[in-house]
Amino acid sequence: MPTPLAEKLRQRIAISGPITIADFMTACLLDPDHGYYTHQQPFGTKGDFITAPEVSQMFGEIIGAWLIHQWHELGCPAPFSLAELGPGRGTLMRDILRVATLDDAFNQAAKIQLIEASPRLRAIQAQTLGPWAQRVGWHDDFEHVPPQPLLIVSNEFFDALPIRQFVKAQGQWRERMVGLDDAGALVFTIGEAALAAIELPPGHAQAEDGDIYERAPTREAMAGMIANHLSDYGGAALHIDYGHTKTAIGDTLQAVKNHAFTQILSTAGEADLTSHVDFEALAKASTAPGISVTPVMTQSAFLLANGLLERAGRLGANQSTAKQDEIRAAVQRLAGNGPDDMGDLFKVIIINARLTH
Ligand code: SAH
């Protein structure tokens, strides 16, 4: 049985022809009637996948302490926007705000801004944030964040933004699309026109027929907008995501349901659909006057440098053995390098603007 969204897309494609992977992703994630983020229960042990803030409060606490430090480095601008892109259930922001109560001046100056496209998740965020929800401004996109200094974070946001895919076919690069097979089911196809002007990664000349190259114009546009904002008003951005350090050829589009990889087309709207973030492209897109971008680091390097082990020690002090084991397991999941751990798979990039004018 096709999902309701697959049926909706089938009708659309039957009328107007194949759609790009970017259009397919946008529909799967945010279709108002059947989108994954608009209708499903994505996060947590009961959902389809677990994100770092849901693993342990330590993740958000460390980011909170990092943000407070950044704010002092910036000269304590007041007011400033404390923003998050794609906050999911709101857990990361809640943990950040709990830490922020330790620094009254920071807490007073912070104007909380959440960028969230899903009305359903906005309602969950309001619940998670409890009393803080009164202080939150919600926005559909980054453009509406107020013109003032900005500290912004994101976790697993950029991987959910739509990508385009290009396939090498008979020596030429063509756009990968979603069309219909003879029986009317969704199928991957290749666009008719050859694309002359896509910027290809190093080594592309050796690419073989069937190889796939991904670009994420929406992601890059978002990174560019944030960099411009930081350049104009000062501040810093911290982005954490599943991804790779260097631009490369390869297909990373993936659907996840019930904590396992699943079919991409047949689960339209009912599985999480993401791709790995190309951090080299993200860094390149984050350019504006006065901006500096740190070399990409692993999540484990970032968390350890910012006191994960010390925090775990304090949290576990005088607790039961069971609680201490739980904390140890969370440290391993967040900063370890096993196949199920996030430490090496997730990457971190920091974008900074120290205003001199
Ligand atoms: N940061 C959270 C959730 C990650 S899932 C966590 O770590 O648990 C991706 C989040 O981004 C969801 O909240 C989703 O609704 C939101 N999102 C996806 N695409 C978006 C878009 N184009 N604009 C705004 N929010 C978007």
Model description:
By secondary structure, this protein is of the alpha/beta class. It is built from 13 helices and 17 strands. Strands 2, 3, 4, 5, 10, 14, 15, 16 and 17 form a 9-stranded mixed β-sheet that branches. Strands 1, 6, 7, 8 and 9 form a 5-stranded antiparallel β-sheet that branches. A 3-stranded antiparallel β-sheet has the order 12-11-13. α5 packs across α6 (91-100), α9 (217-233) crosses α10 and α12 (308-316) runs antiparallel to α13 (321-335). The longest helix is centred in the first third of the chain and has 17 residues, at 57-73. The chain is globular, with a radius of gyration of 21 Å. The mean pLDDT is 94. The structure holds S-adenosyl-L-homocysteine. S-adenosyl-L-homocysteine (SAH) binds at residues 29, 37, 43, 51, 53-54, 86-88, 92, 115-118, 121, 155-157, 160-161.
Brief characterization of the structure:
The protein is of the alpha/beta class. The chain has 13 helices and 17 strands.
Write the layout of secondary structure elements.
Elements: H1 4-16, E1 19-20, H2 21-30, H3 36-39, H4 52-55, H5 57-73, E2 80-85, H6 91-100, H7 104-109, E3 110-115, H8 119-129, E4 136-139, E5 150-155, E6 164-169, E7 172-180, E8 186-194, E9 212-215, H9 217-233, E10 235-244, E11 254-257, E12 260-262, E13 272-274, E14 277-278, H10 279-285, E15 291-293, E16 297-298, H11 299-305, H12 308-316, H13 321-335, E17 346-353
Parallel strand pairs: 2-3, 2-5, 3-4, 5-10, 10-14
Antiparallel strand pairs: 1-7, 6-7, 6-9, 7-8, 10-17, 11-12, 11-13, 15-17, 16-17
Helix pairs in contact: 5-6, 9-10, 12-13
Bound molecules: S-adenosyl-L-homocysteine.
